[in-house]
Amino acid sequence: MARTKIPHLVSLLAAFVAVSVGLGLIGAGLMMPLAGAGGSAARATVDGFNNLDDEWTANPLAQQSKIYSADNKLLATPYTSRREVVPLNKINENMIQAQMAIEDSRFREHGGIDVRGTSRAFFQNLQSDSTQGGSSITQQYVKIMLQERAVREGDSDAAEAAVEQTYSRKLQELKYALNIEKTQTKDQILSSYLNLVNYSDNTYGVEAAAKRFFNKHASELTLTESATLAGVVQSPGRYNIRTNPEEVQERRDVVLDRMLSLGWITQAEADEAKEPSVESLVDIQEDEGGTCSKASDPYFCNYVIEYLKTMPELGENPDERMQAVNTGGLRINTTLRRNWQQKMEQELKERVPTSDSGVGAAGAMIEPGTGKVRAIAQTSEYKIGLQDATSQYSEQSWSVPFGYGGTNGFAIGSTAKPFNLVTAVQEGMTADSTVYAQPTSSTSPAVFYTNDFQRGCTTVDPWPVRNAGDSSGGGAMTLAQATKGSVNTAFAQLASEVGSCKIADNMEKMGLRTGNGEKYGLAGSDDNYAISNLVLGSDSSTPLQLASAYATLAADGKYCAPTPIQSITTADGTKIKLNERDCEQVLTTDTARKVTHMMFGALEPGGTAGSNPSSALADGREAAGKTGTTDDSNQSWFGGFTPQLSTAIWVGTPIDTFPMRNINIGGQFYADVYGGSIAAPIWKQTMDYASRDMETVDFPDVGEDTDG
């Protein structure tokens, strides 16, 4: 038994000698008898202690980032742990004294190591195999900071080493503590410590703890609240304020007794502070904003998080970027206009109630010329961890692409036709140019073949084309008329004349891709497109992508990639320089304006969204747009824009597709659901609301000078 204790005793003695020498408590001569007792182990430990690294650099403390809307409303607080850093003068003196009393009452007297505490721990450890006890506030600060640094760097070995109970770790910790005491003031050390330590329930730092548990700032903490928090630090898992208030109360009273024994409070103050139960004191606050699952705008929040993962300004890879978001204390200002988004969501849910099984609706609004995303909304309720999404509950956004927390999208129907118009104008056609529309009926569709279309990039099985409602729609008509009536056979003929490959190129240039990020319209290979995708929108995309592509027309041919980020500021107030907006002039101004004017027709009387009901904007505000409905009426759309805003609305079947025919949606019966039936009226109400305080700006006339 005695033999097994000798190596342990020697290492203890060696460590004690090393620390004593480091503190200047034992000189070289006085050391020799002790060194003799410990032999070469003690001498080696002293030498090792003197050679230990003592250069200390404290990383910035991890703290919560905050995401704000464009009108400065807090949307969410992404974090891995709750923390808000405050200066010492923002922490109540009650809290400062309570923490020192229970953790290191001689903190302001010693030089980083509490000699009495260390000596006491040394002699206690002689009786056991323990290496516990004796740590000053400065030593605790070193240990916790080393652990947090390792965790942030993803170094699990270093994180484990930072807290393992070994003498080598203790000695390094002591060496750092001595250096810190030489380079920082006591107030600086205490401030860092109080902003660092764990106060239970994933809450770090006294400001976050005061808000979390008492709904107040650290500067407002009472004596009993301060003692409650101070007692937790010894064992945050055991003394969890939220789940174990009885043990926390016992620990609080220990803190108060310690403060009394030190003469820092009176007996009357201690008695008064012990009166209320911890359970009665605590006022647990859920995080303001919270993570995305708790945000008031969860789908937009999730889109922002996924977008931040793509930003090189925040790190070299997605993991580094998320670390910056979760621990960097960033202020992230977004482009979201909450009142516009709330109006969009209201209109979506009024016309397509969440409770209507099988159907759903979503929308996106973007600012032409900047790409700023102003709103995204949908009818489903946000719910994470679903094995299978439904039309009522979904974690995925129906408004944004898959890579940003969305889906692959939905077939866009005739909203694809404006890209055909762009190509026609580039080929020299105008609104008055004539195109022939083959007549159709329910039994006799117009049929197109491979030889009818541009070779080299288009796949066409015999393609039967009908017009909406099985109307004949036959004969010669102008491009403007074909657009106003959305005549399918006219656009099929147009595509055969202008070149299907060119249509696909324009879709790509204007930012229209599928929800999973592929080129729109592909039939399987990189250079092979299905003509039905290019003309009648049989391929899938999302409201955000369609709104963005249409915004290119609104901005006189300038495409700007969508962005939800306005600015990002670091915890110390430094503004992060963001890359330039991803904008490019992809169409000539003349082309964009000619196509825009042809798209007026959809909202005019007799247009697909111009009557029964009319979706023209209020007060005569000019707008251009296009309806879209798939062949089986399982998806319907309206995309439209003014010079200031571009919005796309989708109404359809998000999970299991079925024809929306002879159906009740929102308490109204529809024989067939077209783009003009529900999507266009939602678009109108949303755009009217967002535009109500904007100057009325008309589109320039075709041929008008750009600066005119």
Structure write-up:
Among the domains are: 1-51, no CATH class; 80-281, Penicillin binding protein transpeptidase fold (Orthogonal Bundle), CATH 1.10.3810.10; 412-538, Beta-lactamase (3-Layer(aba) Sandwich), CATH 3.40.710.10. A hairpin with a 5-residue loop joins strand 19 and strand 20 (635-641). It is built from 25 helices and 23 strands. Helices cover 39% and strands 13% of the residues. The termini are far apart. Strands 5-4-21-20-19 form a 5-stranded antiparallel sheet, with helices on both faces.
Summarize the structure.
This is Membrane peptidoglycan carboxypeptidase. Among the domains are: 51 residues, no CATH class; 202 residues, Orthogonal Bundle (Penicillin binding protein transpeptidase fold), CATH 1.10.3810; 127 residues, Beta-lactamase (3-Layer(aba) Sandwich).
CATH superfamily of the domain at 80-281: Biosynthetic peptidoglycan transglycosylase-like
Structural class: alpha+beta
Major sheet = 5 strands, antiparallel
- End-to-end separation in angstroms reads 99 Å
Biased composition (Polar residues): 627-637
Protein name: Membrane peptidoglycan carboxypeptidase
Domain Glycosyl transferase family: 76-259
GO molecular function, one term: penicillin binding
Set down the secondary structure blueprint.
Elements: H1 2-23, H2 28-38, H3 40-51, E1 66-68, E2 74-76, H4 93-103, H5 115-125, H6 137-152, H7 156-161, H8 167-183, H9 186-196, H10 206-214, H11 223-232, H12 245-261, H13 267-274, H14 278-281, H15 298-308, H16 318-327, E3 331-334, H17 338-351, E4 360-366, E5 373-378, E6 381-382, E7 393-394, E8 410-411, H18 417-426, E9 434-437, E10 446-448, E11 458-459, E12 463-465, E13 475-478, H19 479-485, H20 488-498, H21 500-509, E14 529-530, H22 531-536, E15 540-541, H23 543-554, E16 558-560, E17 565-569, E18 583-585, H24 589-598, E19 624-629, E20 635-641, E21 646-652, E22 661-665, E23 668-672, H25 679-691
Parallel strand pairs: 1-3, 6-7, 11-14
Antiparallel strand pairs: 1-2, 3-17, 4-5, 4-21, 8-15, 9-13, 10-12, 16-18, 19-20, 20-21, 22-23
